[in-house]
Amino acid sequence: MQLREYLEQQVDLEEKYYSLIDEIFDFQEFEEGDTILKTGEISDKIYFIESGIIREFSYIESESESESESESESEKIITHWILPENEWIYQVESFELGIPSKSKIKVLKKVKARSISRNKFNLVLEQDLTLSNAILAIYRRYLLQLEYRNRMHQLRKVEDRLDFFEQLHPGLSNQIPQYLIASFLNTTPSNLSKVRNRRMHKLKANNG
């Protein structure tokens, strides 16, 4: 979904504002494996994902910044977000406070995005009330993401966390490696595999 389509669903704006939004939001494309934000950099852009998949994560047992990842590395990282199209992504603490990011944002599947810099973002908030209200929709959406993620991680069973994740982003779990889903659900790949197998057997039994 393009940014304009998304905003049309969120707010009611005159045509002149959509033209202005086109001017202040840049078009950007990233290939699979590209790093959008490195650990230690300042997060100075907000991205709207028009297509593709993005992941935010941080290392918890290793200071390695190796670009090559495998299932064995899943125990060394914690995944904060796995986000598909029609979602917003930026490192909140770094963006708001202007401090180095403690996490990393990387592309899982080729991304087309619109981005707005921190300077332009703040300028719009200061100068135009109508656009300020529209941009508040961005914050509301991101706050909802935070709420949903917190709610998911409050669930004790991995089965329930997996169900919540799949309801939140239907079809997404089939597009990314299992070890990344396990990292996001705070479990191991082997345990996630067992959970999925149990669910499959239960489904077959119910349908049989």
What are its keywords?
8 helices; 208 residues; 6 strands; Jelly Rolls; six-stranded antiparallel β-sheet; alpha+beta
Protein described:
With 208 residues, the protein is α+β, with helices and mostly antiparallel strands. It has one domain: Sandwich (Jelly Rolls). 46% of the residues lie in helices and 22% in strands. It contains eight helices and six strands. Strands 1, 2, 3, 4, 5 and 6 form a six-stranded antiparallel β-sheet that branches. The chain starts with a helix and ends with a helix.
Percentage of helical residues?
40-55%
The second-level CATH architecture is Sandwich
This entry's quaternary arrangement is single chain
CATH topology: Jelly Rolls
Question: Mean pLDDT score, rounded?
Answer: 87
Could you tell me the radius of gyration in angstroms?
Answer: 19 Å
Q: What structural class is derived from the secondary structure elements?
A: alpha+beta
CA-to-CA gap between the ends? 39 Å
* Low-confidence runs of at least 5 consecutive residues: 62-68
Give me the secondary-structure topology.
Layout: H1 3-10, H2 15-24, E1 26-30, E2 35-37, E3 45-59, E4 77-83, E5 88-89, H3 92-97, E6 104-117, H4 118-127, H5 129-153, H6 158-168, H7 178-184, H8 189-207
Antiparallel strand pairs: 1-6, 2-6, 3-4, 3-5, 3-6
Helix pairs in contact: 4-5, 7-8
